[in-house]
What does this fold into?
Amino acid sequence: MTTTLPVAVTTPAALLSEGDRARLLAPKLRALGDDTRLTLMLLIAERPRTVKELQEATGLSQTLVSHHLAPLREQELISSKPRGRSNVYSLCCAELGGPVQFLASLAAQAPEGAAPVSEVT
It folds into this structure.
């Protein structure tokens, strides 16, 4: 006769208080809080891209694109892999693409200055 004991697997995040999770999340959200960085994230969410591809899509200089990619890398929201003389930037994890695109879509739902849906009668 074999007895099986239930085992719960707990992720490290589940061991943190809400305040601790908020403190860890805040720098990541600050990195996304710039419209240029968010634009870069949306482009990278579509598919991995090089700095040159990001330049062409945004019209920004190579220096400015690299400047805005740095906080995203520091917060581990994106990663880069060398490809020839370039680096290819991709999201840290596939699961991040959906939430980033969803958050960006919120802006299209209520134009600036428009009343939120809950206030419209």
